[in-house]
Specification:
Helix 1 packs antiparallel against helix 2. The longest helix is centred in the middle third of the chain and has 29 residues. It contains seven helices and no strands. It has two domains: about 90 residues, Orthogonal Bundle (Rna Polymerase Sigma Factor, Chain: A), CATH 1.10.1740; about 60 residues, Orthogonal Bundle (Arc Repressor Mutant, subunit A). With about 160 residues, the chain is mainly α. The chain starts with a helix and ends in a 12-residue tail after the last helix. Helix content is about 65%, strand content about 0%.
């Protein structure tokens, strides 16, 4: 059943017409979006169907065929998605990664006990949370307590002290 046929059945209040119209709308929207989006097209098709369903009362057959009216809604949904994706990519491209020097080590933190120093060393090596806990053989609560003490003892947080529980 085509989209326009499904809409005609819906207008006549035929049995099961709502479900048939929604299914036809989704199939058509997915077909239109599949080639231009490649990914996320099913989510966007669903969004377009919901938007069209909410505006169904505004449809005027004298102005356009149902398929054309629906296409405009799907196209607007696609364009909005592409604009948002473009903005996200632009924001990511504009991020400047901080230079990372493998030889950089932060100034030692004064007043740490042996376990806290071991935690700092593990953090600098890239072991966080449960990985660090397992290497030290300590519980999560002990690890968190020690991390809080390290953070309190550190005058200035450094990039190497990214504390992850």
């Amino acid at each position: 059943m085509t989209l326009n046929e499904a809409f005609e059945h819906y207008q006549r209040d035929d049995s099961g017409a709502e479900a048939a119209l929604l299914a036809a709308m989704f199939r058509q929207a997915a077909d239109w979006l599949r080639s231009s989006l490649r990914c996320d097209f099913e989510d966007k098709a669903q969004d377009a169907v919901l938007k069209a369903w909410a505006k169904l009362g505004d449809y005027d057959a004298a102005k356009a065929a149902f398929r054309s009216w629906f296409y405009l809604i799907v196209r607007a949904e696609r364009n909005q998605f592409l604009r948002e994706r473009y903005k996200e990519r632009e924001a990511l491209d504009n991020l400047q990664a901080a230079p990372f020097d493998d030889d950089y080590l932060p100034d030692p933190i004064e007043g740490l006990n042996e376990r806290q120093s071991e935690i700092v060393n593990l953090l600098q090596q890239g072991y966080f949370g449960q990985d660090a806990q397992n290497r030290l053989g300590i519980s999560r609560s002990t690890y968190r307590t020690e991390v809080e003490k390290i953070k309190a003892a550190s005058a200035t947080p450094t990039p190497d002290l990214r504390i992850m529980y």
